[in-house]
């Protein structure tokens, strides 16, 4: 199937279930802004509150985190005048298409999803049905816009493959060429930012150790302290990428530096090869503070006017529905629902 019949359109989202980490920023949010600024795509960015409640969320906190995530998007450079900014539950077509996709996706496909296995843990029988069906709703988020590109971190690759499988099965079962086969955009030097305490674990907002991550709202001193304490090995930095093999913690810090500075890993090593961590870490801390502090202070400013955030989200939902309502109607028609 040729994707040329589809408007170049980007969709992506994050769960408003905790604070944002440097991993979210470098793996995804930074790319949201770049793709918006490229001007080639229509861009739609979402707070996926329906996904967040697949595990328990305190209601007041969920609302606060949703607004905070909207503020983070805007502070990082998502411009509500150029991108459609939405909260998932305010655009009902996501959940409506999600139901149709629950009936397209197969149990066996879902059982293979590693994020479900990780999140459900040992007691999968006690996980919510929503957590199991999570990737079908994610496919609906994307395909209700006929989105052609989805910027995400490396951990979402499997979900995007499933999104393509769902689109292909729907098209095949109904004999149509209706949903695009969406391309993941997993790019940059830091598609998988690792924990500062353990180079084999992903940096995550759910890690019990706060020292394992940099939060987007950490102040300059905290950022510097966490980087200073980050786990490393005793060797100096190599001058070539090959020298980072089997040095996961060193590689992680170099990747973070490259992504923050918009440099390649090769360039970073050309500049810092031979340096000890005692020198490299302060340089990294300075760079991180320079890039992250303005975002944190802009977030705080935006959070001071919650009414304005709510107004932007209401407007975003209206703009989104101009795209999603016709696509849902057409889907229902294809499926054979009377009255659509
Ligand atoms: P989540 O916080 O799970 O909703 O993730 C939101 C986005 O951030 C997704 O595109 C993830 O792939 C991305 N992401 C989360 N953690 C990391 C990480 N440690 N490194 C790179 N990308 C990440
Ligand atoms: N599953 C994604 C995550 O955990 C969040 C998400 C939900 C998403 N719907 C999406 C990402 C659609 C991209 C596109 O990070």
Q: What topology does this entry show?
A:
Layout: E1 9-14, H1 22-38, E2 42-47, H2 49-52, H3 59-76, E3 83-87, H4 93-102, H5 107-111, H6 114-120, H7 129-143, E4 149-151, H8 157-174, E5 183-185, H9 220-229, H10 248-261, H11 265-272, H12 277-303, H13 306-335
Parallel strand pairs: 1-2, 2-3, 4-5
Helix pairs in contact: 3-12, 4-7, 4-13, 7-8, 9-12, 10-11, 10-12
The protein binds adenosine monophosphate and tryptophan.
Adenosine monophosphate binds next to helix 1.
Word description of this protein:
With 340 residues, the protein is mainly alpha-helical. It has 2 domains: 3-191 and 305-335, 3-Layer(aba) Sandwich (Rossmann fold), CATH 3.40.50; 210-300, Tyrosyl-Transfer RNA Synthetase, CATH 1.10.240.10. It is 54% helix and 7% strand. It contains 13 helices and 5 strands. The strands form 2 sheets. The chain has a 3-stranded parallel beta sheet with strand order 1-2-3. Strands 4-5 form a two-stranded parallel ribbon. β4, α8 and β5 form a beta-alpha-beta unit. α4 crosses α7 and α7 packs across α8 (157-174). The longest helix is centred in the last third of the chain and has 30 residues, at 306-335. The protein starts with 8 loop residues before the first strand and ends in a 5-residue tail after the last helix. The structure holds adenosine monophosphate and tryptophan. Adenosine monophosphate is lined by residues 14-15, 23-24, 27-28, 152-153, 155-156, 191-193, 202-203.
